[in-house]
Every structure is written in C-alpha cells, then in structure tokens.
Design goal:
Bound molecules: fe (ii) ion
CATH topology: Purple Acid Phosphatase, chain A, domain 2
Largest sheet: 6 strands, mixed
Number of domains: 1
Helix content: 10-25%
Radius of gyration: 16 Å
Order of helices and strands: EHEHEHEEHEHEEEEEEE
Length: 240
C-alpha cells in the first residue's frame, strides 16, 4: 500500500492556506507513481465553517481516494454537511490495497486536547473484531504521547491508556498515524510505530529552536509517504 499522508491544512478562506494546500495536492498529482490514497489527519478547516469546507472540497478533489478525519479546529456539523460522514462521532473504516484504515474522531469541540470517547473505543473494538487477519492502520488527529514541546504537550490525546488497552487485543494493527502538532515526527505507542505528519499550513517551533511564536509560517508544507509491505511501514517525509 502506498499512502500519502498530509495534515493540518487549516483552510480559513484566505489565500495563504489555500495556496499551500493546492501546492501539496499539485505535488501529489505530479508523482510518477499513483498513490493508493491520500489521508488527511484533521484540522482541515481552521474554524469548522461550511464555507471553509466548500473550499476544502475543491482542493481535495483528486483522482485518488481522499480519506479524512476531524481535528480540534474542525466542527462536525460543517464537516459532515460538506465532506460527509456518519452521525455522532466521525469514525469510519476504509479498505485500501489489501489494508484497512480505521479513522477515529478525537475531537472535543472547543478544546485543543483530544479524546476517544467510550463510544468510539467500543466502535473501534467491534470494527477491529471484524478486521481480524487484515493488516490495519489506525489514524486520528491528536498524538497520544508527549512531543517534548511545552505548548503542544498540553493538547495531546487524553487517557491514551484506554486506547492502548483496546489495541492490546488486536495484533493486526501495525501502525498509528496522527497529525495536529505540525511536525514530521516518529515515536512508538502501545508497541506500534507512531508516525506524525508535518503541517501543511505551518511547522511547529521546537522549544530549542530560535524565533518567536508557536509555529514557523515560512517553513514549507510537508507530506509523509507510507509504503506498507508485509506488515512493515516505511515512511519518507518530504517538504513541498
Ligand atoms: Fe493544526
Ligand atoms: Fe490540531
């Protein structure tokens, strides 16, 4: 499976965010090998407004399947109205090139941190029961582990141990993909690779980097490519 993973487009109606997202999509459409899917891990719109999602719908128009999930800047009502999705939490499963991609909704509307509700975790367990034998990737917005950056460390997935407990029963899950922190990064969680997409709209300024402000608006947008073969993920990060 060949997956392009982008995140945090923060479309707000302004030219800057739109131009960056367009630049990334043009780059993906110019690759010499087709991707099996493009995954967008949240903060797709900056304020969760319908007019923002209408711009998003145009930007994410692609010959490839575009799979998406909400972040803390998204709002379910506008998201669902334009991009679609189930009632309640926006949890969905997609089948891509012999793999399952389980996309979870970690949004708490009005909050920067995230959670997987008991309903979402119950849905996840039932979904993974039905996927036994299928190599599966799980994606959601908020990283479940400390990033070692003082501000974003306040905004992580809450109660990550509840997710780890569910995952312990499902050996077919091979990796976790997130966004939210606008930094190309890798770690582990629950014994699995945790692969974090860079931001399209901006790049996190680490505590030990010079400069003012939480993010660097000049740094180029980025993409993660995940190539999955024999249950092993190889990730390449690129700036665009
Ligand atoms: Fe974001
Ligand atoms: Fe976020």
């Amino acid at each position: 499976m060949f997956l392009a993973h982008i995140s945090d487009t923060h479309i707000d109606g302004g030219d800057r965010a739109t131009d960056r997202a367009r630049r990334v999509m043009d780059y993906l459409h110019g690759l010499t090998r087709p991707v099996d899917a493009i995954l967008v891990t949240g903060d797709i719109a900056d304020h969760g407004r319908v007019d923002e999602y209408e711009i998003v719908a145009g930007l994410l128009d692609s010959p490839y399947p575009v799979l998406h999930l909400p972040g803390n800047h998204d709002r379910r009502e506008g998201y669902r109205k334009v991009l679609g999705g189930p009632d309640g939490e926006l949890n969905v499963v997609h089948h891509v090139a012999g793999h399952a991609l389980v996309l979870l909704d970690s949004l708490i509307e009005g909050r920067d941190e995230g959670e997987l509700t008991p309903q979402t975790l119950t849905w996840l367990a039932a979904t993974l029961d039905g996927l036994r034998g299928t190599p599966t990737l799980i994606a959601f917005h908020h990283p479940p582990v400390r990033m070692h950056q003082a501000v974003v460390d306040q905004w992580l997935l809450q109660k990550p141990e509840d997710l780890a407990e569910v995952l312990a029963g499902y050996p077919d899950v091979i990796a976790i993909l997130t966004g939210h922190t606008h930094t190309a990064a890798a770690s582990t969680f629950a014994g699995l690779p945790l692969l974090i997409a860079p931001g399209v709209t901006s790049t996190l300024r680490l505590d030990w980097e010079p400069g003012e402000g939480l993010v660097d608006l000049e740094a180029p947008p980025g993409v993660a490519f995940h190539v999955v073969e024999d249950r092993r993920v190889m990730t390449h990060w690129r700036v665009v």
